[in-house]
Amino acid sequence: MNDPKIQIKNLYKIFGKSPQKALKSVQSGMGKDALREATGHVLGVDNVSLDIAPQNIQVVMGLSGSGKSTLIRHINRLIEPTAGEILVDGKNVLAMDKDALRDLRRFKMSMVFQHFGLFPHRRVIENVTYGLIVQGMDEAEADKRARQWISRVGLEGYENNYPGQLSGGMRQRVGLARGLATDADILLMDEAFSALDPLIRYDMQSILIDLQKELHKTIVFITHDLDEALRLGDNIAILRDGHLVQQGSAQDIVLRPADDYIEDFIKDINRARVIKLGSIMQPLGRGKLPDSAPRLDADTILQDALMVVAQSNGNTVIVEEQGKPKGKITTRAVIEALHG
Amino acid sequence: MWDFFLEFPSIGRRDLSALRQGIDEGFRSFSRSYGEAIEIFFSPLLHFLVWFEKLLLATPWPLILIVLCGLAWVGSRSMKITVGTFFAFILIGYFDMWEETMATLAIISVATFVCIVIGIPLGILMSKSDRIQSVITPVLDIMQTIPSFVYLIPVVMLLGIGKVPGLIAVCIYAIPPIVRLTNLGIRLVDREVLEAAEAFGASPRQKLFDVQIPLALPNIFAGVNQTIMMALAMVVIASMIGVRGLGVPVLRAISNQYLALGLMNGLAIVALAIIFDRVSQSYGKRLQAHREGGEK
Known about the structure:
heterodimer, A: Rossmann fold, CBS domain Like, 2 domains, six-stranded mixed beta sheet, four-stranded antiparallel beta sheet, B: mainly alpha, MetI-like fold, 0% strand
């Protein structure tokens, strides 16, 4: 296992007049609502610890007010924590002076915003070159790189438009191109697709998935949309009232919800499109495998497996990983998994 | 006993006049010892003003007319405003107000320049810190509400009668809007856009010049427009302390009840005001072209 790219350790953020005093109450067990009533302080992030693996998409999910946008802003220190530690590549972000922090933001990570955060007075091309110019790259080189990224996100021909002339989906492509152009290995995406309508959002997710196959960035993706979380996340962390309720793969969350809150969350999702055979297969046991039994890959989602399983007439289906049989699955197990 | 309630218990006439005299004496001795130094401090401004006025008067009038119409066109890109400017100045010249108008133009230009040079940095400073804002705002309030005649007194006591005290009076009166609107414009810049600049590692300086000022420009420009208008309004009052220009005949008309003279010069001021206003406003609007989709 690789070392985590980003480590968040016991992070607290309390908004208000004297956060340090409020911190003591929180650490001795006071909840978000109680704290607001007693002291007027707002608990943004409550003792969150999270290791984010390199080259993965880490989704942080929660409803509005759960502290997810506050959490992501700690990673590049747009917000100062009340207590806790943040390490990026093993270096303590909170110990950095202004210059080191600026370099971190210039070269190590970039950000994509919910409402795009584009510069309305700059053309598309000038928006995308922004991060490069701030890095100190000369303009011709920055321009060349920016044009590559603009065409990579499918906006060729719009280089000289102002953001105000583009649709929402196109604007966020500009935001994405701007974030990718700096070549930082960490990409922070704060509800990046939440302001888009569902079809465009799906498109943007596909673009991100395609890009990620090539680029292997460490992406921290904030969303309030469970379908989005399940589709994108290699690992998903769920926040509620500032604290971490559960983290794990999409399979973990759907098959083994930590509490009622999460169970409530996953009630309405389409389980057939999330659960993979690998997560529900049973050990093969001894004995020879029937040659005639159909075989499916462990990454197959239930939806795609249903026909095969149905045609097996109640017999076993063999689940393979990289071409080797790893487990088996029965009609009953599939139905149970679908039912939840 | 009732007297106490009927008459406000005041400081008493003798004490009061002693107090006033004390303050007056104090200020007089201050201006005696520092007046000259202050005058020397402002002398570059005086030279600039005199030079500019002379330049405007020495240049043949057709050339000035062409330059003015050209500026109106560059600023507004509107044929209507340009033609209006042309005829306004033709009428002003025809009714023999050319010299006064040039003098007024000179002091307005210099005053606006001074206000921009001082006002915009002050506004930026104000936008950076709530504490500075809370100190400067009441000062601006006082500058805007105090009757302008009142602050003519210390200015005249300090520097006597003439162009520089007039210019200072105009500037004091006209500077608040540009300071306020610069501050406001910068504070109104979208938080997420600022966050974006910060997230990409922009230094405070880069943030200010690449993001905050360009986005605040329409507001800053509205401030410049207001400043010009207020400077024009102050011209008549400033003529009381020796500023040449359209205010002088207006003042003479008031004391001698010359209706026609007052009206003509008053209308010339109005014409200047309208031209300045329309040109600077449409220029300000073009600055925010990107907001409505704008030209490519």
